[in-house]
Write a structure and sequence with these properties.
The protein is mainly beta and 167 residues long. It has a single domain, classed as Sandwich (Ctag/Cox11 (Pfam 04442)), CATH 2.60.370.10. The protein has one helix and ten strands; from the N terminus they run αββββββββββ. A five-stranded mixed beta sheet has the order 1-7-9-5-3. It is elongated. The termini are far apart.
């Protein structure tokens, strides 16, 4: 029973974070917002690359100010600075962590392997909005800035099987 509980813990935790926005996990929007609220908020964009991945990764702009409920499109550019093909995959989070429940992504490059040839650059799009329900949460009354942070990690190619030399 303990082994079963341990096995189920990771998918349950992932589901719980997606459902509640815990730990800065953003939501996946199923539709666009029904209203735009006059309150403005600044969304900052952060880009990181872990060691072992020779990429340059940066947002088109470092911040944008918009009304809550506005659908925004932001571009990131990634460049493989190596001479060889490399593969990376991005993960994200939002801070403050409790705001993840209100950050709705419509389109994102996260969790998708990105394969870049040596010297290749690619523009990647993120489409999102801040849910107007944020304005009804009194804990967020003083919130004026949200940071969306992406980190690219190297994806190791699976080992190639060694051919059997026997005929």
């Amino acid at each position: 029973m303990m082994v079963g509980a341990a096995y189920a813990a990771v998918p349950f935790y992932n589901w719980f974070c997606r459902a509640t926005g815990l730990a800065g996990t953003t939501q996946v929007a199923t539709s666009t917002p029904s209203q735009v609220v006059d309150r403005r908020i600044t969304v900052r964009f952060d880009a990181n690359v872990m060691g072992g991945l020779p990429w340059k990764f940066e947002p088109e702009r470092t911040a944008v100010e918009a009304k809550i409920g506005d659908v925004l499109t932001v571009m990131y550019r990634v460049t493989n600075e190596a001479a060889r093909e490399t593969v990376g995959q991005a993960v994200y989070n939002v801070t403050p962590l409790d705001v993840g429940a209100y950050f709705q992504k419509i389109n994102c490059f996260c969790f998708t392997e990105q394969r870049l040839k040596g010297g290749e650059s690619r523009d990647m799009t993120v489409v999102f909005y801040v849910d107007p329900a944020l304005t009804r949460d009194s804990d967020q009354d003083k919130l004026d800035t949200i940071t969306l942070s992406y980190t690219f990690y190297p994806v190791r190619a699976p080992a190639k099987p060694i051919a059997n030399g026997a005929s």
